[in-house]
Specification:
Blueprint: E1 2-6, H1 10-22, E2 26-30, H2 33-39, E3 49-53, H3 61-71, E4 76-80, H4 85-93, E5 98-101, H5 106-121, E6 132-135, E7 138-141, E8 146-149, E9 152-154, H6 158-168, E10 175-176, H7 177-185, H8 192-207, E11 213-216, E12 220-223
Parallel strand pairs: 1-2, 1-3, 3-4, 4-5
Antiparallel strand pairs: 6-7, 7-8, 8-9, 10-12, 11-12
GO molecular function: phosphorelay response regulator activity; transcription cis-regulatory region binding
DNA-binding region: 130-225
Modified residues (4-aspartylphosphate): 53
Length: 228
């Protein structure tokens, strides 16, 4: 697998690159946000994962993450010393797939890289015969992964789209939290529960339809199809 390592400290990058190479990764090192963005042209440039350190010299790491997500669906793992929940949620809202806090165990980092790779390989939970789902003013284009409301395109992250598409396949049916996490995040990691809540809140806000996704207390969520 090709991996883009975004790290401004050459000593840290060299040591980590050596470890990753021993585990079969082909590592490209970018020392700044701009180098990283250039390396991902065109369309992710074949990288399987981006390992993004947030302490960059030219741009804020969160800003770089947002720009990466606009250019490519390549999985992004943020690496930072910021361990507070608000920082993690902010990173996930920008489209990061995972978040590793320094100092980290190398084995954990490798496990997380493989985990996001597996989830991306099986990323499409919307295996239905129709090319689009219509829910009142909401149109979900499955092949292009595009969502629009009353004809206006709404920009969603990869996980936001997957979550919406999953719920939209069976309007009115309650999806258990565990089921959603398993199908969208391809994991049973209990910490993903907070991530699910954040993604639901973000969908409600972006679609400007807070009643579209209903919380079934103690169980999970269901999509309430709006009137046409």
């Amino acid at each position: 697998m090709r991996l883009l390592l975004v790290e401004d400290d050459n000593h840290v990058a060299a040591a980590l690159s050596a470890v990753l190479a021993k585990h079969g990764f082909q590592v490209t090192h970018a020392r700044s946000g701009e180098e990283a963005l250039q390396a991902l042209v065109p369309e992710g440039n074949g990288f399987g994962v981006v390992l993004l350190d947030l302490g960059l010299p030219d741009q804020d790491g969160y800003e770089v993450c947002g720009k990466i997500r606009k250019r490519t669906s390549t999985p992004v793992i943020m690496v930072t010393a910021r361990s507070d929940v608000r920082s993690r949620i902010h990173g996930l809202n920008l489209g990061a797939d995972d978040y590793v806090v320094k100092p980290y165990d190398t084995g954990e980092l490798l496990a997380r890289i493989h985990a996001v790779s597996r989830r991306t390989a099986h990323e499409d939970p919307t295996t239905v015969g129709e090319s689009a789902l219509l829910l009142g003013p909401v149109r979900i284009e499955l092949p292009t992964r595009q969502v629009s409301v009353d004809g206006s395109v709404v920009q969603l992250t990869r996980k936001e789209f997957d979550l919406l598409a999953l719920l939209a396949q069976r309007p009115g049916v309650v999806f258990r939290r565990e089921q959603i996490i398993s199908e969208v995040w391809r994991t049973s990691w209990e910490g993903t529960g907070r991530t699910l809540e954040v993604h639901v809140a973000s969908l409600r806000a972006k679609l400007r339809m807070p009643a579209l996704i209903e919380t079934v207390r103690g169980v999970g969520y269901r999509l309430v199809a709006p009137a046409a």
